[in-house]
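Two proteins were folded this term; both appear here.
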Amino acid sequence: MKFRFPTTMAVCLLMAVGSMAHAAPDWIEGKNYFLVSPPRAPAVGPGKVEVTEVFSYGCPACNLFVPVMHKLRQALPANVVIDYLPASFNPSEDWPMFQQAFFTAQALGVADRTHDAVFDAVWNAGELGIVDPATQRIKSKLPTIEDAARFYNRTAGVPIATFLSTAKSFAIDSKVRGAEEAIVAYRVDRTPTLIVNGKYRLHAESAGGNDQVIELVKWLVAKESAGH
């Protein structure tokens, strides 16, 4: 999703690019993928390659991208580390709250096993929903960090008080500020966006579709692996 990109348009766009045909891979820098300049050193060990999804639970295109991330994880070699970087640039759809909640869940060690469940709670079950099912418009009262605390208590057994105290801690505030700096440095202008090893930026539109995203990431990972 681009900055302030309308929700319905983002959904339609992601569905459209998912079905676009693409010729045999001949990836072009500046068209299919973009250099991050200066590159940011990934926090992974020797021989590892980091693949980061810049996303938000409040982003409809990111919700549709979940199956693609599952396929990508299965398609990548064992030396790849996948991580997630939550964005906050759409406050009208609760992105800052979801960013804070993600980093809190990560600090408490439950982010990985609750990742898909949060998307489900936002877009299917409605517990953390941001869209009014009756009007299909953004709710006037969006979920709060307290609502997120109750969700993580139900799904992961995290005490509500523990979640809230962690969410409001200096450590989480630092994580949020670090995420904002990284997103600016990566020049991310939409979600979902993928960053490969802190050096390359791409998305479904640039790659030519969801299947092509997987192939392009595999190609960039092989390129980085060969350079180790």
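Next, the second protein.
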Amino acid sequence: MLKEFKEFIKRGNVMDLAVGVIVGGAFSSIVTSLVNNILTPILGIFLGGIDFSSLSLKINNAEIQYGMFLQSIIDFLIIAFCIFLLVKAVNKVLSVGKKEEKKETKQTLKSNEVMLLEEIRDLLKETSPKKKQVKKKVEKK
């Protein structure tokens, strides 16, 4: 069982996952700082300085802080949007070289396809029954 565990750990997927979790944690603190220190104050300017975190409902001795929940939802949406923009930008940068490669491949394939189709067309013209009939009529005359 220990041997199987060692093999499992040595696989690339586990190491990739570990690196992803560590980098994700570091990236999370950057995005959280962006949201808390830059974007939330800017939104506060537009919303008139509304802070949802202080909203709460008190029932007997229990205090339900629904404002903190609303603030967490807003923070999540901002973070998700920032990550979306970042991933979109990275994908765009990475796909620039791939698009050029695909265009070249399509042009090459297209020209090969066109050549093959032209050959097939020419062969069909040569062996079509109409031409044979016309040739026979010409020969009979």
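The helical segments are 2-10, 12-46, 66-127, 129-140. The chain has four helices and two strands. These notes refer to the second protein only.
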